[in-house]
Amino acid sequence: MDRPLKVSKFSTKAVSPFTLPPWAEVSARQQKQPLISPEDRMAYVIRLARENVERGTGGPFGAAVFEAKTGTLVSVGVNIVVLANCSHCHAEMVAIANAQKRLKTFDLSASGRPEYELVTSCEPCAMCYGAIPWSGVQRVVCGARGKDAEAIGFDEGPKRKDWASALSARNITVIQNVRRKEAVAVLQEYKKRGGRIYNPHQ
C-alpha cells in the first residue's frame, strides 16, 4: 500500500536575487536623495546603463524601482546576462527582483504599500513585458524604444504591438520616450565599442 504523500510547508527563507556588479551596489547606496521627476529618474537609470557599458559588466540597459510619489530609490538593475550566464538577467528583471527582495514581498502592489514605479532606459522586451503585470509595479517609464535596441542587433522578442495599452488596461500607467535621445546614445556607444549582442541564435 502506497504511503500518503507528505507535503512540506513552504520555506520562509528568501532566496538571493540577481547579484549586481559591485559598482551598481555602491551607486544604489549612494543615491539617498529622492528623484522627483520622471526625467531625473530616467537620467539616473541611463547613467547606470552607461556605466555598465564603460565598465564592461553587461549590456547597455539600466533600470530602477522607485516609490512613485516620493521618488525614493528602492532598487537598481543593470543587464548582466553575459556576466551571470543567465538569459533572465535583464535590467528590469534584476531591478524588480531586488525590489521584492528588499521589501520582502513578491507583490509590489500589496495592500498598505506605496505605489512603485519601474524606470527603464529602454522599453521592456517580450520577457520583461510579461513580468511587469505580476511584479506589482503600477507605473512604467521608458527611455529608448524597442526598435532602438533592435537597430543595434538585439532581439526584443514577440511582444504585442499594443503592449502599452495592454498594461494600461491592467491599471499600469506607461510613459514613453523620456530622455529617449540620451538612452539611444548609450545603445549606439555599446555598438561602437563592439559590445556583445547576445541573442540566442548568435
Structural key phrases:
single chain, 202 residues, alpha/beta, Cytidine Deaminase, domain 2, 5-stranded mixed beta sheet, 8 helices, 5 strands, 14% strand, globular
What does this 3D model show about the protein?
- There is one protein chain.
- The protein is of the alpha/beta class and 202 residues long.
- The chain has one domain (36-191): Cytidine Deaminase, domain 2.
- It has helices spanning 22-30, 38-54, 81-84, 91-103, 126-135, 146-151, 163-168, 180-192, and strands at residues 62-67, 73-78, 116-122, 139-144, 173-175.
- Helix 5 links the parallel strand 3 and strand 4.
- The protein is globular, with a radius of gyration of 17 Å.
- The mean pLDDT is 91.
List the helices and strands and how they pair.
Blueprint lengths: L21 H9 L7 H17 L7 E6 L5 E6 L2 H4 L6 H13 L12 E7 L3 H10 L3 E6 L1 H6 L11 H6 L4 E3 L4 H13 L10
Parallel strand pairs: 3-4, 4-5
Antiparallel strand pairs: 1-2, 1-3
Helix pairs in contact: 2-8
In CATH, the topology is named Cytidine Deaminase, domain 2
- H-E order: HHEEHHEHEHHEH
Query: Which CATH top level class fits?
Result: Alpha Beta
- Write down the domain tally: 1
Please report the total strand number as a whole number: 5
**Based on helices, strands and strand pairing, what is the structural class?**
alpha/beta
User: What is the CA-based Rg, rounded?
Assistant: 17 Å
Subunit arrangement of the protein: single chain
